[in-house]
Amino acid sequence: MLIDKITPELRAAMLAHAAAQAPRECCGLLVGDPDSGTLHYMAAANLETGQPGEDRFTLDPEAWASAEAFGEVVAVVHSHPNASANPSMCDRVMCERSGLPWLVLGWPSGAMVELQPQGFSAPLEGREFSFGVLDCYTLIQDWYLRERGITLPDFSREDGFWLRGEHLYRDGLAGAGFSLVNTREPEPGDVLLMRVQSPEVDNHGAVYLGDGFMLHHLYGQLSRRERWDWPWQRRTTGIARHSALPQ
Fold first, then answer.
1. Which residues contact 154 (CB under 8 A, 6 or more apart)?
2. Contact 92, 134 (CB under 8 A)
3. Of 44, 156, 198, 246, which is most buried with the most CB atoms under 10 A?
C-alpha cells in the first residue's frame, strides 16, 4: 500500500500544510522522483473561495503541471479539517475520476486514510451532496446512464449561479439534448425544472420516475425518491424531455 511508503518526514510535511490551511482543506500531490524513486509532497493552492473551502477543494492546475514536470504524480492528498480522515462519498467519486490513490488527512487528529480507485459508483438514492460532484444534475446524468444508457454531457457550473441570473439548467439541458414540452403531465425520464428559494432562475432539477414520484438531490440533503406533490409542483417551471425519448 502507498501509505506504507509514507516516511515520518512526508507525514510531517502534509500535516504541517493541513495545520497551516485549517479551517480550510489543504490539498497537494505526492510526486515520485524519476531518478531516485523518492516521494515528495508538493503543496498546492486550494482554489475554492470563501467558506466552501472548508469542506471541499479545487487543486490549482498549475501545481499539477509543476508536479508532472518534476516527476510522476502518484497520489492526491487533502485534509478534512475538524473531521475524521474517513473518505466522503465525494472523495470516493473524485478518486475514481482521477484514477489515482488519494490520501485523506484528519486534522487535528493526524490520522491518515488511503483511498484507491476500485470502481465505486455513488448510489442513486442516499448519496451525499457536493456541488459539481454529487448534485442534482450529476444525479440526472447518472440516472440517464444507468436507466437509459444515455451519456449526458457535463456543463461548467459554479455555486450560486442562480443569484447571478445565470440560466445554467435551461441552457445546459438544451445542450444535452433536452427540449421543453408543452404538457402538465410528465412522462418517466422527463426532467422537472424547479426553483428553490430562487424567484427568477431554475436552480434545481429532478427526474420524473412515473406514478407521481421523482428522484432528486437537494443541497445539504441525501438524494431521495419523493412524491412530486403540490409543494414541488408549484416550484416546477418546466418539463424537459430528451430527444432520445418519445416526444
1. 137, 141
2. no
3. 44
Residue 94 pLDDT exceeds 60 = yes
pTM for the full predicted model: 0.88
Residues whose CB is less than 8 angstroms from the CB of residue 48 and which lie 6 or more positions away in sequence, other chains included: 24, 25, 56, 57, 58
Residue 121 contacts residue 138 (beta carbons within 8 Å): no
End-to-end CA distance of the chain: 52
What is d(CA 85, CA 110) in angstroms, rounded to the nearest whole number? 8
Q: Which of 47-51, 191-195, 197-201 has the highest mean pLDDT?
A: 191-195
Catalytic residue among 27, 90, 95, 136: 136
Which listed residue (17, 80, 204, 242) is catalytic? 204
Whether residue 204 lies in the annotated active site: yes
Given the residues 17, 78, 216, 217, select the one marked as catalytic.
Answer: 216
Distance between CA atoms of residues 244 and 175, nearest Å:
14
Active site residue 78: no
The residues, any chain, with a CB within 8 Å of residue 189's CB and separated by 6 or more, are 144, 147, 148, 207, 208, 241, 242, 245
- Cα distances from 215 to residues 5, 100, 122, in angstroms, run 43, 31, 14
What three-state secondary structure class fits 41?
strand
Distance CA 125, CA 139 (A): 9
pLDDT at res. 167: 85
* Cβ atoms of 201 and 162 closer than 8 Å: yes
- The greatest distance separating any two alpha carbons of the chain, rounded to the nearest whole angstrom, comes to 66
Rounded to whole angstroms, the Cα distance separating 247 from 235 reads: 23
Q: Is the pLDDT of residue 52 over 80?
A: no
Q: Looking at the DSSP assignment, which residues form a beta bridge with residue 210? A: 213
